[in-house]
Design goal:
mainly alpha, rod-shaped
């Protein structure tokens, strides 16, 4: 899980899915929050902390896979659209100057509109699932926070009665 007991990944975006780098704020191990070194696994993790960590990881992987596939489809269909429009004009992939031939903004707007219309349902389902997943993550974040407060209060209560 990264160095220093931190969960999540940091770094450059994946070139195929293009999500921004992910920075999880929940340490992989509760002992790491208390400064204990060498905390790699999650032995002291509560069931809620484990569920939160797993939900975050699963959501990140799901999101990465969706956008990698979606961006690949987009690039492929865009190239096919440009190629077919240039061919219809009797043009090749390169202009006389040797530069790559392109279409104007109005022509590309046709592609973008068509692509979005064709993928509307897919994006609608993605958004629905994205909100469901983030609601679940937010729920478990609240649950973990409440459990931590409750555990601190119980610990204080034990100390005052000892």
């Amino acid at each position: 899980m990264g160095h220093g007991g931190r969960a999540g990944a940091e770094g450059r975006p994946c070139p195929s899915s293009l999500p921004l780098p992910h920075r999880a704020r929940l340490p992989a191990c509760p002992r790491a929050r208390r400064g204990v070194q060498g905390c790699g696994a999650e032995p002291d993790e509560s069931p809620s902390e484990q569920k939160l960590r797993e939900l975050r990881q699963e959501t990140q992987e799901w999101n990465q896979q969706f956008w990698a596939k979606q961006n690949l489809t987009f690039r492929k269909e865009k190239e096919e659209f440009i190629h077919s429009r240039l061919e219809a004009k009797g043009l090749g992939p390169r202009a006389e100057s040797g530069q790559k031939a392109t279409l104007n903004a109005e022509e590309m707007a046709d592609f973008y509109k068509e692509f979005l219309s064709k993928n509307f349902q897919k994006h609608m389902y993605y958004n629905r699932d994205w909100y469901k997943r983030n609601f679940a993550i937010t729920f478990f974040m609240g649950r973990v926070a409440l459990e931590r407060v409750w555990n601190k209060l119980r610990l204080k209560q034990k100390k005052t009665h000892s």
